[in-house]
Amino acid sequence: MDITSQCVVELTWTLKDTLGEVLDELEEPVAFYLGGHDLLPKIEEALQGHSVGAQVDLHLEPEDAFGDFDENLLFLEPKALFPKDIEEGLTIEGSALPAGCNPEAPRNVLYTITEIYPEHLVLDGNHPLSGIALRIHLKVNHVRMATTAEQEAGTCGTGFFKIEIGDTPGSAGGLLH
């Protein structure tokens, strides 16, 4: 069966940056719905017409992946507003930011604590892969027609490194891959 929109593909992949550093490796096949919210549009486009066993190599510029890095999504917040056991790398939903945080910080974004100073910490609302050109090697392991439920939902319940918070259509809460 050839891949068309509104079908389900099971993929494995290796995702690298342009320097060749592996960012993610999906060794066991995962199902994604084409024509919905699961994959980036450039990946869906590249898969069209392929079938089981196909291997596709793509180069994605930031605008075709997770966008450019936006300095307006960086916020310096008082450390005292956060729990004492807070650590770099933790994520916080914007809707759960403590009272007293910058009111201009969007509440429908997932923030990562990127730096902790004695009195402040840095919240970064950018996708972790924003501003990065990506290379991805995809392998098609299985193709099938989507169920009616998958078509109505626009998803198989998985997403390609999407971070979605409650206000986003098709949201499944905070989701990263």
Describe the structure.
- With 177 residues, the protein is mainly β.
- It has 2 domains: 7-66 and 131-153, Chitinase A, domain 3 (Roll), CATH 3.10.50.40; 71-124, Thrombin, subunit H (Beta Barrel).
- The chain contains 2 helices and 8 strands, in the order E-E-H-E-E-E-E-E-E-H.
- The protein has helices at 41-47, 148-153, and strands at 7-17, 22-33, 55-60, 74-78, 91-93, 110-116, 120-124, 134-145.
- 23% of the residues are buried.
**Helicity, in percent?**
under 10%
**What does the main sheet amount to?**
4 strands, antiparallel
- Give the count of structural domains: 2
Apparent shape = elongated
List the strand order in the largest sheet.
2-1-8-3
CATH structural architecture of the largest domain: Roll
**Number of DSSP E strands:** 8
Strand content: 25-35%
Using the CA coordinates, give the radius of gyration.
Answer: 18 Å
CATH topology of the largest domain: Chitinase A, domain 3
SSE-based structural type: mainly beta
N→C terminal distance: 26 Å
What is the H-and-E element order? EEHEEEEEEH
Q: How many helix segments?
A: 2
Which regions contain 5 or more consecutive residues with pLDDT less than 50? 162-177
